[in-house]
Queue: 4 jobs
Job 1
Amino acid sequence: MSAALETLLLRAEALLARLENMLPQDALTEPDWSASIAFRYRRRGPVGRLDPVRHVSTIRLSDLREVDAQKERLLRNTAQFVAGRQANNVLLTGARGTGKSSLVKACLNEFADRGLRLIEVDKGDLVDLPDLIDLVADRPERFIVFCDDLSFDEGEAGYKELKSILDGSVAAATPNVLIYATSNRRHLLPEYMKENLTYTHTDDGEVHPGEVVEEKISLSERFGLWISFYPFTQAEYLAIVAQWLRRFGVDEASIEAARQESLVWALERGSRSGRVAYQFARDYCGRIGLAAA
């Protein structure tokens, strides 16, 4: 195939894709709600679909250590939501690997028998958030729309839709929907040194952020509940390692013997996160011959 023909075909495919997006779309169809407690929204072409998650994470609240304060706040908010009382959208932010996503999954398992369901949406598909909310509005279940590792670049699609649904749109979220998002960024958008120049100073010494900074803060402020996570100390890391080893059936003597190895593992990875502790526990159990849990 000549280079000119290949270029022509690529341009034709791009044009067809643009035309597809301009055509009227079919309504989002309901999945088999009994197939799972968790669903994943995927957009394929002009129409998205909800796919049941066949193998849902089995993590429980008891598996998560050294995040008791964060656990209590998210558990309380989720319990209020499931009970039909007032509750807030939640933004979980902070150090990587500290249990933000795991805590959301554990809450799902905690309340699934009381009607809680989870729909995971990639940030690129948040433009379809109003359609998703319309789809579940009349369902008896309670739905968490979950956006993992959420952050936006300047002008990225989905930012405006999420901002409107959280607070400010006429078409607000229904009472049976909450949005839980995790992020390593508190304000969800990149922040630059030059933006400090937009701050203004009044005669009495007060400092006020400029319009650019206000815009970046405005999205995260629309989450009613902020839950922050922090890097673990060595003692906390070792406690998490021990928790996972117990979960995998390791005896106390072996857990004590594994302490030094787990510290070396963390040093090599450059992190003492809960994720690193879990990964060490899996490696250790595999080496001593324990079956997968």
Note: The radius of gyration is 23 Å.
Job 2
Amino acid sequence: MTYFAATSELLNQIRSRQHFLITSHARPDGDAIGSLLATAMLLEQLGKTCDMVVADPVPAIYLNMPQVDRIRVATSVEGPYDAVILLECDSVERSRVRGTNGTFLINIDHHSSGREFADFNWIDPQACAVAAMIYHLALAAGATITPEMATCLYAAVLTDTGSFTFAGTNADTFALARDLVLAGANAAWIAREVYFTNPAPRIRILGAALSKLNIQDKLAWAWITLEDMLESTAQEEDCEGVVNYLISIAGIDCAVFLRELPRTTANSGPQFRLSIRSKGRANVARVAEHFGGGGHLNASGCTVDGDLETVIDLVVKRLQAELC
């Protein structure tokens, strides 16, 4: 579907409805938060009403984004809503927000693992971020890109491109960044908020992970346990970005960071959340999909059941095969 066709049809769907729920995936990142806020601002320019709900708290580094206090943290909603807009989700379940059954679903995604699960689907793996898609939707709607909207979109693009380092970053990406700065985004302020407001536990958990660094040929991996999380007083969000230190190592083509998850019940077994990165040789989206996850060609994630040694063995073998 072309951008013109996608945005035209999506605007038709939006204009025919009034009250929206906007949500994104659990454990929201910069693209999720920035796109969520910008979408709400766009809808309100179009005379619509909306609620923003996510299942997990907004990470601390995004708490100064414009209108972020409007985002509600909840795992269920009651509505009624005329439509639900899901950003960066490959299913309704990915949001972990319940109560949307029977509501018209709009799916906007840019992951290569995106799935057409909704009533209206707009998936563009060529987009550098969902925020880029929301920007073009706003232009198609004739909306004003306000400084607040530009700030949210720029933060989303900055973080989802790995500070403009991921594959797929091209002239269009920088043209978008330029347009957003011209519209009022303060690039230096946003970068300081994202990269220079880390809480101390985030640095402690980074140290714990790097102390367990393993390197084998072109592959690097590290992990943290529940005990590490307790000792460092770190929260789940403090683990974001650890994998980027692993992939930054000279000579490394692929990296994975494993985080032990809390047990859901007294009798449940261990689980690990994996963040996987590649410099281009390995398709880590394919690896993540093998384990039930997904994402981008060079940045993906999944959750794997099993004890640490078993999970590491499974994932390392899979990544080594991908690197061959």
Note: The chain has eleven helices and twelve strands.
Job 3
Amino acid sequence: MEWTWQGVMPALTTKFTDSDELDTGLFVKNVRAQMAAGVSGLILGGTLGEASTLTEKEKDTLTLAALKEADGRIPVIVNIAEQRTSDAVQAARRAASNGAQGLMLLPPMRYKATSRETVAYFRAVADSTDLPILIYNNPVDYGIEVTPDMFEELLSTCPTVGAVKESTREISNVTRLRNRFGDRLRILTGVDTLGLESILMGADGWVAGLVCAYPAETVAVYALGKAGRIAEARSIYQWFLPLLELDISPQLVQNIKLAEVATGLGSEQVRPPRLPLEGAERERVMGIIRKAMAQRPELPQYKQYL
């Protein structure tokens, strides 16, 4: 499969039954909605996928289900977020053996590695596989920043490293990285509330969260923004922003799953230690979702711009 790091790539939630088993039927239903909307790839096993609570067998099941549904039309990308370098290497090899077409790679978890240690960790994984790699740069949530100098070292020694999920929440980093690396490093925004802004500043794509509930709206914002149809993109984005803000919260999984229920693309089931929202916070989130659903816009014919 020939593809590049661009377009909208959903960070998919994992669907569970009320008995805490994988709900692969509901997972596949969501994947079909994503593909119908025009996403360019599927990312599994990230924070939104509750990966830290999944067994290796469950990750395999989700990967194989996504690959079967994608059927070679778009890539399936597996997230790697491990504590030990050897575990990250093993996870990368397992993803490759299952047939995944790419990896999203976080810095070491829990231990706050130095720049040298972080680069060595990335390089060890990159050296273990031929799969294309997207580096997830999220110092706000994970405490380690991958600096431009670190990217320079990675790009010079790891040919499979080709993209960044830019989640520093500093919009000027899109331009800063483009100025330094040109097209050697593809840039995908990873912050929903900076989605359109990043696209207008030249980002190649968007690793999105609320896309799990609103795939067509997310892809429309991306496609219209890329096509220079700013007024149309901005109109959808203004409606979308209160929902997108549900993504920048420690309870983003619960928030987005509530939105998936509203659009018929998921369930509220999470895996402990996460628990469904309750009380005033649940009502606050539901209020945002109900208002958005009541005002949900009619979308223009955006697919012609993909």
Note: The chain has twelve helices and eight strands.
Job 4
Amino acid sequence: MTSTAPDHPTATIDPGTEVGLLALTVADLERSLTFYTAAIGLAVLERSDGAATLGVAGRPILLLREQPGAEPWPRGARSYTGLYHFAILLPTRADLGRWLRNWLELGFPLPGQGDHLVSEALYLEDPDGHGIEMYRDRPREEWQWSNGQVQMATLPVDIRGLLRDAEEEGQPWSGLPEGTRLGHMHLQVSDIRQSADFYHGVLGFDIVAHMPMALFVSAGGYHHHIGMNVWHSRGAGPAPAEFVRLRYFTVDLPSREALQAVVARIDAAGIAHRQAGDRVVVQDPSGNTLVLQAGRALSVADAAAIEGSI
């Protein structure tokens, strides 16, 4: 999956940058909370009327807001710009195997799968059609690179090996373990070139894989923090209001200086944005909303502050 990256004038985003928090709308909050706690293993950290914050070990990962009766996200065939999937990164292979064992014991079918050489990934959907990837990374020293492009593939996952690793550790399932976090985002976009200009040319992410219909970018040599494709959304716009949707996700920079450097490039490019303290709200060319912030959401209070900036 190698190629030559497009030639964009750019400054590199701080290598400590990650994605951190995700906000979605759902049609039925009770249904979603049952799914995300029992089947995914997140904990409810806070709940209010029509909204909930979920996470692991007190750290928020997912914000849900109810939109009663909303249509499910249209997957396959013709769709809209927005979420393709979000990816939950587990600390170890045994952790992923333990999650899979619980999923199967709940009576769900075997998820979709992909051994991507850099990671092992399992794919599923929530009750509203939001795509989810559960994955673990292989050690970075095992990743292969060629001309600045990471070598990835889509091969079958060793399912028996995952379950065996979990069994050998002998630990019962008790939800997602501490250290679990949002590992990357994968978006549906309308145009790959425009997306490259924004995520690479302005924000400063490195292009680590580039194809005619997909693009993967990262900071600090990660295999990807943000993926994007036009497989079902070429030339499309955001979904109509009656559909569930991606509200926003955060891009977490390690310092105010790192954030200011990105904001300076956004200003220079003439891209509209809104600043609220140490946070900047901006949309990519496909209408996906990003919240750029200095630091990470480590508590329910941090997540609430982000909500207040939207």
Note: Residues 94 and 168 are 8 Å apart (CA to CA).
